């Protein structure tokens, strides 16, 4: 229970993966990997740098990024997803690379450059709730960002996140404190000032 | 709306003041200030250092401290309040220095070493809700700390925090996302393993 045993640090955690990665690899392995590398180099890495993020690790189709600010994390995700939409508009739908992004915030445990803990796990679960090309954030992230970035939030209500401790809240109407973390919002950039919703 | 205009950074914000400061100064100005200085030197500053906090500013009876981790901020507050209770046990009640502590977390705006923003304001409001010798935290802090420190939380429900943007939530049973920030918890260190509750 001692706070001294591990290094804890507040971070905004962005987890992303490629929707339908195995299918894309099956269709065109070399081409998909080359396009992913180009997207990293031309879009993702520059945006992560602009928003002061740190790429913690990558897997085949996934990436985990830590930001020192929640607003910067969501701004980065919006920039990448908007950039991706432009990037892939001319590519046949079944060959499009589309990311799903989940963002959470909280104390994480830092160890040899890697990050661990509940806050990271929830980011990964939120990623799985995001639509292709979309962003899903926790209610805590929503509360930090609303009114500070030009985007809209769609409340998707209380979510059951599997293997999650503390035990998942049922979506009743008397939330326990801390319940907010398990509430999700989908996020979209506003498109033009006159756009409705 | 650009995220680049200001430097935002996640922090746990601890705001504390001395309960009944004017009364104590009225009773014994020099003695109260000398005792406050001794408490800073012997108790507060060492605990802030151990928990990696940074003292942002002090006012006559107040102090604002930023921590890089929520768990560290609450651990520091518990250590200080426990230390204070030992320190003041032999002092007549009307001359006791007692702190009220509020803790919140979120993105803050960093400018010339000072911190600003909603997250800071909420910490100050929570401080005002704390009892003398007590700690009051936001629901977001509670969610981050529960199970990670040896303390108990008492839910004090949704709180109306004046001058607060976004408009203060009425405590209905259908919380909007982000509502959690306006929910408070009082925190107490557990006293001995056999203690009930």
- The helix-and-strand class of chain A reads alpha+beta
How much strand content do the residues of chain A show? 25-35%
Count of individual beta strands of chain A = 8
Major pleated sheet of chain A:
8 strands, mixed
Largest interface, C-beta closer than 8 angstroms, per-chain residues: A-B, 44 and 44 residues
Shape annotation of chain A: globular
Q: Determine the fraction of residues in helical runs of chain A and give it as a percent range.
A: 25-40%
The gyration radius over C-alpha positions of chain A equals 17 Å
Oligomer: homodimer
Count of helical regions of chain A: 5
What does this entry show, briefly?
The structure is a homodimer of 197-residue chains. By secondary structure, chain A is an alpha+beta fold.
Characterization of this structure:
- 2 copies of one chain form a homodimer.
- Chain A is α+β, with helices and mostly antiparallel strands.
- Chain A contains 5 helices and 8 strands.
- In chain A, strands 1, 2, 3, 4, 5, 6, 7 and 8 form an 8-stranded mixed β-sheet that branches.
- In chain A, a hairpin with a 3-residue loop joins strand 2 and strand 3 (62-67).
- In chain A, helix 1 (21-27) packs across helix 2 (29-50) and helix 2 (29-50) packs antiparallel against helix 3.
- The longest helix of chain A has 22 residues, at 29-50.
- At the A-B interface, strand 1, helix 3, strand 4 and helix 5 of A face strand 1, helix 3, strand 4 and helix 5 of B.
């Amino acid at each position: 229970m001692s706070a001294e045993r591990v290094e804890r640090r507040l971070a905004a955690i962005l987890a992303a993966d490629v929707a339908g990665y195995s299918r894309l690899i099956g269709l065109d392995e070399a081409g998909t990997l080359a396009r992913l590398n180009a997207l990293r180099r031309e879009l993702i890495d520059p945006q992560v740098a602009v928003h002061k993020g740190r790429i913690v690790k990558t897997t085949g189709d996934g990436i985990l990024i830590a930001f020192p600010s929640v607003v910067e994390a969501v701004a980065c995700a919006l920039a990448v997803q908007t950039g991706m939409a432009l990037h892939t508009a001319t590519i046949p739908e079944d060959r499009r690379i589309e990311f799903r992004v989940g963002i959470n915030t909280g104390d994480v445990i830092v160890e040899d450059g890697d990050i661990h803990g509940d806050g990271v796990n929830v980011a990964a679960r939120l990623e799985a709730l995001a639509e292709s090309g979309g962003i899903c954030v926790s209610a805590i992230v929503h509360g930090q960002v609303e009114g500070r970035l030009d985007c809209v939030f769609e409340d998707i209500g209380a979510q059951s996140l599997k293997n999650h401790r503390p035990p998942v809240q049922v979506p009743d109407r008397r939330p326990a404190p801390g319940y907010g973390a398990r509430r999700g919002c989908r996020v979209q950039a506003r498109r033009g000032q006159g756009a409705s919703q």
